[in-house]
Amino acid sequence: QVQLVESGGGLVQAGDSLKLSCEHSGHTFSTFVVRWYRQAPGKGREFVALINWGLSTTSYADSAKGRFTISRDYAENRVYLQINDLKPEDTGTYYCNLVATGGHILWGQGTQVNVSS
Questions:
Q1: For the chain, percent of residues with pLDDT exceeding 70
Q2: Which of 26, 37, 86, 90 could serve as 2's disulfide partner, Cβ 3.0–4.6 Å?
């Protein structure tokens, strides 16, 4: 069964750091891109960062440059999102998304991040 599973969210204080994880499994895709999105309460889902799994090239939303770092662990089949200096406005549900050649699109169930001031 192909699936994406996010983890690593939680309740933290402003200024803390978190490292979110997205584990993908059950597929044989060789060429794909993994993206992180977030959805704040009452708002739409917004793109945060992406990584090309094979090339390890990355791209970030302007709002994510500086405090967010996306990376991957090839052996563990995981994509990480490191968030430093967390702010209350980072509160929301963080989702990972995998898009593979051939039109395959997968979403995880999300992991909740709550940042208190």
A1: 100
A2: 26
